[in-house]
Every structure is written in structure tokens, then in C-alpha cells.
Design goal:
5-stranded antiparallel sheet, single chain, 9 helices, binds adenosine-5'-diphosphate, alpha+beta, 33% strand, 366 residues
């Protein structure tokens, strides 16, 4: 049986706004789950319903098989870390860490032990006497995480905990949180709008859009087997390229570049979409630059180079395919000349097709 069960969860705010629709998810003990999606898609609302900070309008929330909808936040065995840290400004780091335990009436000796251990894990030992205002953003965030882990709860809930940090601190804290998760083994639900955080931290990711779950899966699943254009475009950086093209006689006319789909798609699929517009998707990093010859098991596409960005480990190449803008990711030594013609190839296995109407992925082989 799953440890946490969300069954048909809905949230309708008092003003009538339906923020979360029919949310279904089962979470195993010890899993690291990330809710990801653009701002306003319902991630925090869902997390707050799990925390007991928002009531559930419809549906069931179960902890270890027992209905928990009516349980108060304190009785759910959860600790929450917020984006805003929510530290007590007038208290030292030591007291901020100790506060929850003091409230619970834990012995002073035990508190001291646990504060010292937590501070050690988070690199805060030298800062225990300081007030939050005398800490950097990263250190404050560590105190906020420390306050959650010191309570030894079974469930950690984190709402955009890294969004106030600079890029470098975010990368460091990302791996620290993953490490803490490994050490504590606590079931963790982490909310972010940042797909990189989701990809690097999660056991499983829940992609949300406008209050609906789009897909649940491992980072690998979502990257290689997105169910629709939204997930395909959300996961991966730079995002997947999408090109509208029409299917005729089993061939896709990609703005003058002809792709014979019979090698990669079943006949029945091609017949179903005959004469229709579909969307071709390919990831910027899934292409290969080619010379004058025709590549094997790949579609060759000609384009014009408009802009290149050398990022160190790779170069982003912005190209124009007969008016369609796309991005290619190539090795720095392959960086092409500006305004030059460029031929690239999309290997068959890296080609995605989507239904233009439903935006769902078209399964090419039965
Ligand atoms: P996210 O965390 O994904 O950014 P939220 O869960 O905070 O999104 O919000 C989801 C939607 O619910 C948003 O459109 C937001 O404006 C709306 N919302 C959030 N809180 C309330 C509220 N108290 N009353 C009405 N609408 C709300």
C-alpha cells in the first residue's frame, strides 16, 4: 500500500476559483516527489492541502491508509520549508533550530544534541549565535531546512525553498537537500517551477498545468517519453523544438525538407493522419550536424544560422528553417558561422510527432 494517497483531490477556493482538479497520486515511503509547473498551476495549493494548511474541497487524502483530510497540520507528522524561510528574526540560529523542540517540551540536553547534530549536517556550527539578519541567503535557507529536519518527521514539504538564492547557491543547496533526503529517508514533496531542480532532485516528477496533472514519471520517463507537447516543452533546456508540418502520402514536408515517415511509423498511424497537420518535435541536443552527404537513419534538414551562443560546454545555435525558428545544441568546436547555410540531421529515434488538435504525443509504432 502507498504511504501517501491523494485520491480525486480538488480545491475550490471560497471565491469559486477551481485551482486543483481531480489530483490522483500514490507516494511510496521515502520517495522524493517534485511538483513542477508554471506559476499558478496549483502546486502550492496541493502541497498546502497535504500539509493541512488548506482544506480539501473534494477527494481523499490518506496517510498510511488512514484518511487524514480532517487532521490538523500538527497531527500529520509533516514539516514544511517555505520560500520565505519564515525564521524568527529576533532569535539566534540556535534558538530558531531549537524552537519547535522547545514547544514540544523536549529535554534541554536532547535539544542541544539535536541542534548541534543538525547544525553540523548543514554547516551552521559556526553561526549558532548569529541572528538571521547576519546570515547570507544560503545560510538562512539552511536554517529553514534545519528547522524542518530537526523535528525528525516522516514527511517533508518544501515550497520553492531555493527561489531566493542566487544561481550558484541553488546548485549547492540542491545537492545538499538531496543528500539530507538520503540520510533522513523522509518522504519529501518539493514544489518548484524550475525544471532543472525537478530533473536533478526527483525520484518522480508530477508535471502540472492549470490545475491538472499532465504526467507523473521519473525524470528519464518525462524526458524521453513525454505524453504531450506541454510536458515535452517544459522538461529540457532549451526546450524541445516544435514545427508544424503536413503529412502527405506518408511523408512529412518540414518546410521544404521531406521526411519519409514509413521507416519510423506504422502504416495505420500514417493513414490516420494523412492530409492532416501534425507537429514535429525534436530536442536541440538530439541533432547532429552533417556535411554534404545524406545521413543514414535520420532526417536531414537545411537551415540558416541566425545566432550562436557559446555556453562553454556547448553552443546554442538559433536557426531559421524557411521562416521557422528553432534551436540546436552543438559541441563548441562545431559552432557554425553566422548567416551561413547549415545542414543538420535528426536521428529517427529522436523524432516525436504530436497531434495538432489534442497536443498529445502520437504513438508511431503499435
Ligand atoms: P503555484 O504554486 O503553482 O504557483 P498556487 O497553488 O499558488 O499555484 O495557485 C493556483 C491558483 O489558485 C492560482 O491561479 C492562484 O491565483 C489561485 N489561488 C491561490 N490562492 C488562492 C486563494 N486564497 N483564493 C483564490 N484563489 C487562489
Amino acid at each position: 500500500m502507498a504511504y501517501l494517497t491523494l485520491r480525486g483531490i480538488n480545491k475550490i477556493y471560497p471565491n469559486g476559483f477551481h485551482a486543483v482538479h481531480d489530483f490522483n497520486l500514490e507516494i511510496e515511503k521515502g520517495e522524493f516527489i517534485v511538483f513542477v509547473g508554471s506559476s499558478g498551476c496549483g502546486k502550492s495549493t496541493t502541497l498546502r492541502m497535504i500539509a493541512g494548511l488548506e482544506n480539501i474541497s473534494k477527494g481523499d487524502f490518506l496517510i498510511d491508509g488512514a484518511r487524514a483530510n480532517e487532521k490538523g497540520p500538527r497531527d500529520r507528522g509533516v514539516a514544511m520549508v517555505f520560500q520565505s524561510y519564515a525564521l524568527y528574526p529576533h532569535m539566534s540560529v540556535y534558538d530558531n533550530l531549537a524552537f519547535g523542540l522547545t514547544l514540544q517540551g523536549v529535554d534541554e540536553d536532547v535539544i542541544e544534541q539535536r541542534v548541534n547534530k543538525t547544525a553540523g549536517i548543514l554547516g551552521l556550527t559556526d553561526y549558532l549565535d548569529r541572528k538571521p539578519r547576519a546570515l547570507s541567503g544560503g545560510q538562512r535557507q539552511r536554517v529553514a531546512v534545519g528547522r524542518a529536519i530537526i523535528r525528525k518527521v516522516d514527511i517533508f514539504l518544501m515550497d520553492e525553498p531555493l527561489s531566493n538564492l542566487d544561481a550558484k547557491q541553488r546548485v549547492t543547496m540542491r545537492s545538499e537537500i538531496t543528500q539530507i533526503h538520503r540520510e533522513t529517508g523522509a518522504t519529501t514533496i518539493y514544489v518548484t517551477h524550475d525544471q532543472t531542480e525537478a530533473m536533478t532532485m526527483a525520484d518522480r516528477i508530477v508535471v502540472m498545468k492549470e490545475g491538472y496533472i499532465q504526467q507523473v514519471g521519473t525524470p528519464y520517463d518525462l524526458y524521453f517519453n513525454p505524453v504531450n507537447m506541454f510536458v515535452a516543452g517544459f522538461i529540457g533546456e532549451p526546450p524541445m523544438n516544435f514545427i508544424h508540418a503536413t503529412l502527405k502520402g506518408g511523408k512529412l514536408d518540414i518546410h521544404g525538407n521531406i521526411a519519409d515517415l514509413s521507416a519510423i511509423a506504422d502504416k495505420s498511424v500514417l493513414e490516420k493522419y494523412e492530409g492532416k497537420e501534425v507537429v514535429l518535435g525534436f530536442r536541440p541536443e538530439a541533432v547532429k550536424l552533417v556535411g554534404s552527404g545524406n545521413p543514414e537513419n535520420a532526417y536531414k534538414i537545411s537551415c540558416m544560422v541566425e545566432l550562436t551562443e557559446l555556453l562553454g560546454d556547448n553552443t546554442n545555435v538559433y536557426v531559421d528553417i524557411q521562416g521557422i525558428k528553432t534551436i540546436l545544441k552543438v559541441e563548441p568546436h562545431e559552432s557554425p558561422e553566422l548567416d551561413a547555410k547549415l545542414d543538420f540531421a535528426i536521428p529517427y529515434e529522436n523524432v516525436y510527432l504530436f497531434d495538432k488538435e489534442t497536443e498529445k504525443r502520437i504513438k508511431l509504432k503499435k
